[in-house]
Amino acid sequence: MAVHRTLVVLAILSSCLAEKYKDGAKVEVYVNKVGPYFNPHETYHYYQLPVCRPQKIEHKSLSLGEVLDGDRMAKSLYDIRFKKNISPAQELCKTTLSEADLAQLKEAIEDLYYFEFVLDNIPVRGFLGHLEEGGFLPHNHKVQLWTNIHFNIQYNGDQIIYANISTKEHEPVNLDDAVAPFEIRFTYSVKWHPTKLKYSDRDKLVKGTSFFPKTLEIHWLSIINSLVLVFLLLGFVVIILTRVLKNDFARYNTDDEDGEELDNDDNGWKIIHTDVFRFPPCKSLFCAILGELTDCNDLQLFIALPVAGRLDRKMT
């Protein structure tokens, strides 16, 4: 029980510890993961792609919820300052792509890879590139890479409320005609927007804006079939128990003249009534094991909540 109380207290305290910034203070941006858009469970480290990276990669210490969510946060080269706009776009880095790098980027864009950054514990996502297909004969196929990221950040006072990114501020780079070695320039820009939303409302805002498609398919026929099966089984059990108990009660309510015969030929539910209410052997050990299993189940529930999205994974 002490472990449970500790987890609850930590979750409550972490929700109260909001990051506050001074004007011009650095806002750390962590790169996280990349993966195909239609399979969010398949993810890779962002730096596995041939993109801008620091000379020494520093990973962030992750919480339990972040580990269970498959996060792989590492520091980035983005230099974002609180309330400081960056316009026009500022250069992030220049890199030269080899033939293998170009092939890797093309394959990722064709698989509709998205990337995820984390800014002040807010996940921001965007697409790595743009795949343009059209026509049948002839078939048009263009693989384009977004090289600019624009950050839109909302703030209230000294706290960040919400953030998102867009990649369409600049024209993408066409990779179809790229020949190695191919030099490419990555840029970024930042726009700060004041808002009246409170920090306490930002969790609802973050969870309410989903990057992935929300598809809710309810198979009503399967649900109805399951319910009918359950009710039928319950009905059969009730009918069987009613008949058995009715016969037993009829036998036990006979005249006293047949009492001795009933005692000698008793085969009803009263035969097992002494066994049902009998203490099991080693009842203290049994109670201890049952209590420990209950504690383990509660701990599994606390671990499952961040995975299911019912508890903020950044707080656990």
UniProtKB/TrEMBL annotation:
Pfam families to which the protein is assigned, alphabetical: EMP70
Database matches in PROSITE patterns: PROKAR_LIPOPROTEIN
Membrane spanning stretches: 220-241
GO biological process: protein localization to membrane
N-terminal signal peptide: 1-18
GO cellular component, one term: autophagosome membrane
Keyword terms: Membrane, Signal, Transmembrane, Transmembrane helix
Domain of life: Eukaryota
Topology versus the membrane: Multi-pass membrane protein
Compartment(s) of residence: Cytoplasmic vesicle, Autophagosome membrane
Record's function text: Plays an essential role in autophagy.
Family statement drawn from the similarity comment of this UniProt entry: Belongs to the nonaspanin (TM9SF) (TC 9.A.2) family.
Protein name as annotated: Transmembrane 9 superfamily member
Organism whose genome encodes this protein: Lingula anatina
Gene: LOC106180957
